[in-house]
Amino acid sequence: LQDVALRFRLRAQQAGIELRTQLDPTGPRVHGDIALIERVLENLLDNALRHTPAGGRVSLEMIPDGRRIRVTVADTGSGIAAEDLPRVFDRFYRGGGQARGARSGLGLAIVRRIVELHAQTVSLTSAPGVGTCVEFGLPIAPAARESVDTPDAACEESVRRA
């Protein structure tokens, strides 16, 4: 989460948008595909920055919640009309305010699919002129999976031969 936020920090500064993070690097590890989760965060942060005017704020937050971590990306941007909310995760859907050809309408559909592949759900709340908040979960990794300092037998054999 921190790495992706850092990649967007300069873009936010150049746009005059405050990018806040509330992340706990000592928090529990999660079980997930790092590249896919980065893609989720990139899509969400890109959307948030694109729809937030100068002087606005985008925040990325992680909150431990039982057996999962809740991740939220919230902005003080233009928001989404109520009639568009039921379809925002549909493939190729672009809300009424989107100009033709502006975007493919796949970003949030990709987000939903990746989150579903992690056996979690994604939700979105929004109001025009107020902003948007997207929240999804990531399962906390079992303690046994967190230990990676014991190489498997094949690795040990390769090290001995080297």
Question: Would you mind describing this structure in some detail?
Answer:
The chain has helices at 2-14, 34-50, 107-117, 143-146, 153-161; strands at 18-22, 57-65, 68-75, 122-127, 131-139. It is α+β, with helices and mostly antiparallel strands. Helix 1 (2-14) runs parallel beside helix 2 (34-50) and helix 2 (34-50) runs antiparallel to helix 3 (107-117). It starts with a helix and ends with a helix.
Which secondary structure elements does this structure contain, and how are they paired or packed?
Blueprint lengths: L1 H13 L3 E5 L11 H17 L6 E9 L2 E8 L31 H11 L4 E6 L3 E9 L3 H4 L6 H9 L1
Parallel strand pairs: 1-2
Antiparallel strand pairs: 2-3, 3-5, 4-5
Helix pairs in contact: 1-2, 2-3
Summarize the structure.
The chain has helices at 2-14, 34-50, 107-117, 143-146, 153-161, and strands at residues 18-22, 57-65, 68-75, 122-127, 131-139. It is α+β, with helices and mostly antiparallel strands and 162 residues long.
